[in-house]
């Protein structure tokens, strides 16, 4: 049964506020999120019966937005620039995941990783193939290998020095993909 429009708006507002709140403080309470979203705790719990369900939905929503963004980027950017921008956003999503803290337990983490891995690899493949087609990206790159290389970018320390290091690492990765 479809949700009423006001219920859907509340859900979207809760997710948006939760993303912000959990990025700022991985321990943000559900009551503080409800208050920031301008809804009562009961409304939040109707949509998300527990903290884990809210945290997981925030992460899922962000990953799916990211995966859907790849073809949009390719409509306006050359593949190498699209890939760089896409990876920058992926790194920021990983930072969000880091901010979600203990809410992603080991078992839940595996389930979410399995669910989101396919869309992420698919988006990388779309951009790589576009770069192959226009001659800017080396042929036959494996999206899994490229994602593994990207792991170094989101492992940098937080803060300005880490951001600069992440940019340097991203430059090295992008340069290694050039034809």
UniProtKB/TrEMBL annotation:
Residues 8-66 form the HTH tetR-type domain. Pfam families: TetR_C_43, TetR_N. The keyword Transcription regulation applies. PROSITE patterns: HTH_TETR_2 (PS50977). Residues 29-48 bind DNA. It comes from the Bacteria. Keywords: DNA-binding, Transcription, Transcription regulation. SUPFAM superfamilies: Homeodomain-like, Tetracyclin repressor-like, C-terminal domain. The keyword Signal does not apply. Gene3D superfamilies: Tetracycline Repressor, domain 2 (1.10.357.10). This is TetR/AcrR family transcriptional regulator. It comes from Nonomuraea marmarensis.
